[in-house]
Amino acid sequence: MGRIFRYCFWDLLRSRFVLAYFGFFMLGSLGIFRFAPSASAAFGALLSAVTLLVPLCCLVFGTLYFYQSRGFHELMFAQPIGRAPLCLGQYFALSSALGLAFVLAAGIPMAAYGFSTNGDIGLLAVFVGGGLLLHLAFLALAFWIAVSIEDRLRGFSTSLLIWIALVFGYDALVMGLVMRFSDYPLETGVLAAMLLNPVDLERVLVLMHLDTSALLGYTGAAFQKFFGTRSGTWISLGALSAWILAPLLLFLRKLARKDWQ
Amino acid sequence: MTLPIRIEGLRKSYGRKAVLRGIDLHCEAGTVTAVLGSNGSGKSTLIRCILGLNVPESGTLRVFGEDVFAAPSYRRHLGYMPQHPSFPENLTVHEILQLVSRTRGVAPDFTRCAALQVEACLSQRWKTLSGGMKQRVNAFLAMAFNPSLLILDEPTASLDPASRLRFMELAMAEKERGKTLLISTHLLEDIREIADYLVFLRNGKAHRVSKELMLELAGSPHRNAFEQAVAVCLEESAPKAG
Q1: For an interface test with A, which of B89, B92, B137, B153 has the most A Cβ atoms less than 10 Å from its Cβ?
Q2: Comparing C-alpha atoms, which of B31, B72, B20 is closest to residue B183?
Q3: CA of A138: how far to CAs of A81, A133, A201, A234, A247, in Å?
Q4: Is B167 an 8 Å CB contact of chain A?
Q5: Please, which residues have CB within 8 angstroms of residue B148's CB and are 6 or more apart in sequence?
Q6: DSSP class of B125
């Protein structure tokens, strides 16, 4: 797996998509920090961009990458290497390449605009670390989709539907339920709902390290009480890890019985 | 003696469509077997099963005595040339050779396949190679690690006439070295000289015929007679195994 990782990572570092991904986030981050009225407003805008675009890019590029690797898989399966080491090597190479592009493109402007001081280093770490976990989770989902659905068009459609469902649909559903049952104490239910969506987890984790949670009123206080604590952070990280491991295990299970056509 | 390929009762379906309906086939060491069949007859499926790329419903498949689905170690004996080769686009040919060489634990033998002239493109990235050059690298990767069994899927389909001739000379040289070859092809001129056995895939079954019997059926040593006899076997009923 290590060998496949090294060669695929080296290939990806030279790919146009990874360079474009880096360039897009770098220019976006610099633009946001340059033109936003305050550093915290810029940070909020950057967080929105990351939670919106990282899942989309990972799902689209992940499925595309797996589909385009079919010929490579066919050739490498004629070598003494198993399916899982080959495909996991590719998965970690892609995660590392996109993750590195993200860390550099979002981290450098943040550090340059004063988020690397002692008070903000924790926030920077949560933002970047959470972003990396988002990459791992959505690339695992993308690989699972690609290995499960033979037809590329259907694979891409499924990726886009999952993106819409997790980024927009889930929040709309939760918000609708909260409004419908506003007379009941829903804090625990909403907290649990946040754990079931990796995008919300990243968003909430970062927001709880900002002062803006004070603006959210009673619900914000309940969130702060849970996610703002060390154990809450660990539970959230555990939930994000589950979002990586579950699709990865489903991917490996499907991979073991897959027919290459 | 351990056979390079031994297949018994191999069955494979895609959904409700049964492609292989109990294939029994073996290849002796040092022989060349050509797999023939119309489009959709299951040639590629059979090769993919041997490579472990497709998982059959039932049957046993052994390569040099090793169960294909037990562990990938049997592939050390195997060289494979697919019809449409593909590698990570930004790797150079040198890096691709390194990757395969390190995976197999054997260094490639450049002198063995000098006719393919792969040295000339070692520093080029995969995406910059022409279709013919990709196929030559593909052929090199199949042969340069000295495998005992070579599986070639439509090997000359995208080669220019000169490269095709060079490739067939290399394949013949491998045969003379005692290697076992399994070739899937539509081009009868590729196999007329080199093949010892022809396997006709029809209705999900394999019918193995020696080339001598095929020539006998043709009734004449003339090339056209041979090709007509093969065409008859493909389109109508396959002859009894020889």
Answers
A1: B89
A2: B31
A3: 26, 9, 13, 20, 9
A4: no
A5: B4, B29, B64, B77, B78, B179, B180
A6: B
Give the minimum alpha-carbon distance from B228 to chain A in angstroms, rounded to a whole number: 31
Average pLDDT score over chain A = 86
ipTM, two decimals, is 0.81
CB-nearest to A259 from B54, B75, B79 is B54
CB spacing of B82 vs A71 below 8 angstroms: yes
Read off the pLDDT of residues A37-46 as tens digits, 9 standing for 90 and up: 887 788 888 8
pLDDT > 70 fraction of chain B, expressed in percent and rounded: 88
Contact B88 A72 (CB under 8 A): yes
- Decide if B155 touches A, using CB distance below 8 A: no
Q: Hey, how many other C-beta atoms are within 10 angstroms of the C-beta on A64? A: 17
- Taking only residues 66 to 95 of chain A, the set having a beta carbon closer than 8 angstroms to any beta carbon of chain B reads 68-72, 74-82
Cα–Cα distance list, A214 to A123, A199, A210, A236 (Å): 16, 21, 9, 20
The DSSP bridge partners found for residue B58 are B11
Give pLDDT tens digits for B91-129: 999 999 999 999 998 888 888 777 778 888 889 999 999
